[in-house]
Amino acid sequence: MKALVKRHAKPGLWMEDVPRPTIGINDVLIKVERTGICGTDVHIYNWDAWASKTVPVPMVVGHEFVGRIVEVGSNVTDFHPGELVSGEGHVVCGRCRNCLAGRRHLCADTAGIGVNRPGAFAEYIALPMTNVWHHDESVDHDVASIFDPFGNAVHTALSFPLLGEDVLITGAGPIGCMAAAVARYAGARAVVVTDVNPWRLKLATKLGATRVVDVRSESIADVQKQLGMKEGFDVGLEMSGNPSAFRDMLQNMCHGGKIAMLGIPSEDMAIDWNTVVFNMLTIKGIYGREMYETWYKMTVMLQGGLDISPVITHRFAADDFQQGFDVMLSGESGKVILNWN
Ligand code: NAD
Ligand code: ZN
C-alpha cells in the first residue's frame, strides 16, 4: 500500500510502497479516506530535536484520519466492515491503575500512532478495537478527519465551566481557533484570542472569537479595559506553547482564575509564581483527549449545530502532500486535509 514514511533521519517525508498492516483478533483494519496534517507531523517532517529523540525510523507518520472499516478481528463484535470511523491516536496499556479506573487518558504507558507505532498517512491502518470511534454518517468527512485536534480543543476548553465566563485563548493556531468556537458554543461571554500572526487572528474571528489581539501591537490589559472587564479573565486556555504568551495570561487572570494548558513549551520556562500563589490560580495540564468522553462531547456538539469547518483552509490529494506541508510551514493555514481516495 501507499504510505507517507519517515524513511531517513533527516528533514522530509517520502511516499512509499509498504506492506499493508495485518490485524490480530482484537483489531480493526481501516481504509483511510482523509487525513489532517498536525503540527506534530511538521515537527517530524522538519526532524527537530523532539522528533529525532522520539520517533524511530522508518515510521509511517500521521494520526488524524477518517476512514471505513474493511476487516475486523474474530473477537470484534461492535464494529463492522463499511462503518465510518476515526481512531483515538493514543494506544494505552489497559491494565494500569488509571486505565482500570476508566481514566485511560492518564495511562503512563501510552503509545502514539504515527509517532511510536505505524500511523494513518497510509491507505490502511490497523488499530485495537478499543481505539476506534464510530462516526455518525451525517458528519462532514473533512471534520471527521480532524477529531483528534478538535478533541484537544474540546478537552482543554471544557476543563472548566464556561457559561457566562470571560475566556482568554493564547495562540490562534488551528486548536486555539477550534477552542474559540467551542467556548462560544459552551456559553462563554468574551472569547478573546491572541496571536502574533494576523492571518491566524482573522481565522479566529471566523471561528467566533469575540475579540482578537495581536500582542505585538496591543496589550491584553488594554483590551480588558476596552471590554469593561474589571477583574481579569475567568478561564485561560494556553494554546501557543509560547512562554511570553503564558506569562501574559498569568498577569491577566482574575483571582481564582483557572488555566488549562495544552501548548507545549519547547524548553523550561520561568513564570512569576507569586502571581499563581497570591491570586490563587489553578493550572491544569492537558494531554490528548479523554477516552471517550471528549469524543462523545465532540459528536453531540456537532449534532447540536457547532460548526468548526471554517478551520479547514486547504485540501490536497495525498500525492501532493508536499504542498500541504509547505502551506503548514508558511503559517498561513488552518487545518490542511490530505485526501487518500
Ligand atoms: P500552532 O503552532 O499551529 O499554533 C500556535 C499559535 O501560537 C501560532 O499561530 C503562533 O503564531 C501563536 N503564538 C506564537 N507566539 C505567541 C504569543 N506570544 N502570543 C500568542 N500566540 C502566539 O499549534 P496548534 O496545532 O494549534 O497547537 C497548539 C499548541 O498545542 C501547540 O503548542 C501544540 O504543540 C500543542 N499541542 C498539545 C497537545 C497536547 O496533547 N497537549 C496536542 C496537540 C497540540
Ligand atoms: Zn494504562
TrEMBL record:
Residues with site note (Important for catalytic activity for the proton relay mechanism but does not participate directly in the coordination of zinc atom): 148
Pfam families membership: ADH_N, ADH_zinc_N
Domain Alcohol dehydrogenase-like N-terminal: 26-134
UniProt keyword Flavoprotein, yes or no: no
Subcellular localization, as worded in the UniProt entry: Cytoplasm
Keyword Ribosomal protein: no
Chain sites annotated for binding NAD(+): 175, 195, 200, 262-264, 286-287
Pathway(s) the chain acts in: Amino-acid degradation; L-threonine degradation via oxydo-reductase pathway; glycine from L-threonine: step 1/2
Cofactors that this protein relies on: Zn(2+)
InterPro entries per record: ADH-like_C (IPR013149), ADH-like_N (IPR013154), ADH_Zn_CS (IPR002328), GroES-like_sf (IPR011032), L-Threonine_3-DHase (IPR004627), NAD(P)-bd_dom_sf (IPR036291), Zn_alcohol_dh (IPR050129)
Binding site for Zn(2+) 1: 38, 63-64
Annotated residues for binding of Zn(2+) 2: 93, 96, 99, 107
Sample GO molecular function, one term: L-threonine 3-dehydrogenase activity
Entry EC number(s): 1.1.1.103
Biological-process GO terms, alphabetical: L-threonine catabolic process to glycine
Enzyme class label: oxidoreductase
The record's free-text note on cofactor binding: Binds 2 Zn(2+) ions per subunit.
Ranges of residues in domain Alcohol dehydrogenase-like C-terminal: 174-299
Family: Belongs to the zinc-containing alcohol dehydrogenase family.
Known function: Catalyzes the NAD(+)-dependent oxidation of L-threonine to 2-amino-3-ketobutyrate.
Protein's name in the database: L-threonine 3-dehydrogenase
Organism expressing this protein natively: Roseimaritima ulvae
Gene encoding the protein: tdh_1
